[in-house]
Design goal:
- The complex is a heterodimer of chains A (86) and B (248).
- In chain A, β3 and β4 (57-62) form a beta hairpin.
- Chain A has 86 residues and is of the alpha+beta class.
- Helix content of chain A is 20%, strand content 44%.
- Chain A has one domain.
- Chain B has one domain: Alpha/Beta hydrolase fold, catalytic domain (Rossmann fold, 3-Layer(aba) Sandwich), CATH 3.40.50.
- Helix content of chain B is 33%, strand content 23%.
- Chain B has helices at residues 49-60, 80-89, 95-110, 126-137, 190-202, 229-246; strands at residues 6-14, 20-28, 35-41, 64-68, 115-124, 142-146, 177-182, 207-212.
- Classes of the chains: A alpha+beta (86), B alpha/beta (248).
- The interface between A and B is medium-sized, with 25 and 34 residues.
């Protein structure tokens, strides 16, 4: 672990892992060495449910450009949601 | 006549707070002499296959090695990346616990029938900082810091990981220190490496530092784009020369 840049955030929702859907309570966002992606560093997101054990986790590793594009898409979609839905 | 056979296996050892923790042991079966011990401190990505391979490399070269699973309490039996994720979200490994786990690993090594009583630590990345931490906290015979960040320098503001600089504890270093760094690395930067070197000189400590050109962080990692064979090959030679001097 090299950059040590990590932010944790409480989240509410569900994620789908290898054993199916589960409720998630925590998100962890960090820019560091990936496990699988073929880059030196990636923007990594862990969706976690610590109360359900360490394998209750959905992980993604994205290039910085992909992560920025995703963040923009998230904001864009939320901005387009009809009034009253959120 | 000795043989080159090794035995490598998952075990449990007592760690900090008398907790039983998972560990990986690799040692020569019949070395023909008593040998030194090496505590291998895994990097933040975890207690993984590559770190276990490093332990086996020490065994093949005539050392008793053990890798404590620093995430044994957070995620026993979990896959290394799941365990690392949980530990990161929880703030990482507390320094006091690391020292206790390394002390347990030292006791394990010293109790082996082939032990000569000498023990070193070696750590990579966050493990490099932890190797230095162990060396200023425990009576070791040698320590190797491979590109450990935050031995000097402060971590970013608001970072949830519990790592602070250790350079002020340099006078407490119990043993000679080998530092292996990539010149292109920013964590630690060459300025920070120079700062640590100055502290070692001021404290009159025995040390040996090497910074490799055309190498950055994690140059020993064979499964990553950061791997630099030239730096890694020379680094391994430096490690074995260092251990040959201080662990025999």
């Amino acid at each position: 672990m090299c950059t040590y840049v990590t932010e944790t955030v409480a989240v509410s929702g569900s994620a789908k892992g290898p054993d199916g859907w589960f409720r998630v309570t925590d998100g962890s966002v960090y820019f560091d060495h990936p496990v699988h992606a073929p880059q030196d560093h990636t923007l990594n997101i862990d969706f976690l449910a610590p109360g359900q054990g360490p394998s209750a986790r959905v992980a993604v590793e994205l290039t910085a450009d992909s992560a920025r594009a995703l963040a923009k898409a998230i904001e864009s979609v939320l901005a387009q949601v009809p009034a009253g839905l959120i | 006549m000795s043989s080159d056979a090794i035995t490598a296996e998952s075990i449990t050892i007592p760690g900090h707070g008398e907790d039983e923790i998972e560990a990986y042991s690799a040692r020569p079966m019949d070395p023909g002499s008593i040998v030194g011990g090496v505590v291998v401190i895994h990097h933040m990505p975890g207690y993984d296959a590559q770190t276990k391979e490093i332990a086996r490399t020490f065994a093949v070269n005539g050392y008793n090695a053990v890798v404590p699973n620093l995430y044994s309490r957070e995620a026993p039996g979990a896959s290394p990346d799941d365990a690392a994720a949980i530990a990161r979200a929880a703030g990482g490994v507390p320094d006091e616990r690391l020292v206790g786990d390394v002390a347990g690993a030292m006791s394990f090594l010293k109790a082996l029938p082939t032990a000569n009583g000498k023990v070193a630590t070696i750590g990579y990345c966050s493990g490099g900082r932890q190797s230095f931490l162990a060396a200023v906290s425990l009576p070791l015979d040698a320590a190797v810091d491979c590109y450990g960040a935050f031995v000097v320098g402060n971590p970013p503001e608001g970072m949830p990981l519990k790592v602070g600089p250790l350079v002020d504890r340099t006078p407490q270093l119990s043993c000679p220190l080998l530092g292996l760094f990539g010149a292109e690395d920013q964590y630690p930067s060459q300025e920070q490496v120079a700062e640590l070197e100055a502290a070692l000189k001021a404290a009159g400590k025995t040390y040996e530092f090497h910074s490799y050109e055309n190498a950055g962080h994690a140059f020993f990692s064979v499964n990553r784009p950061s791997y630099r064979p030239e730096a890694a090959n020379d680094g391994w030679q430096k490690i074995f020369a260092f251990f040959g001097k201080y662990l025999s």
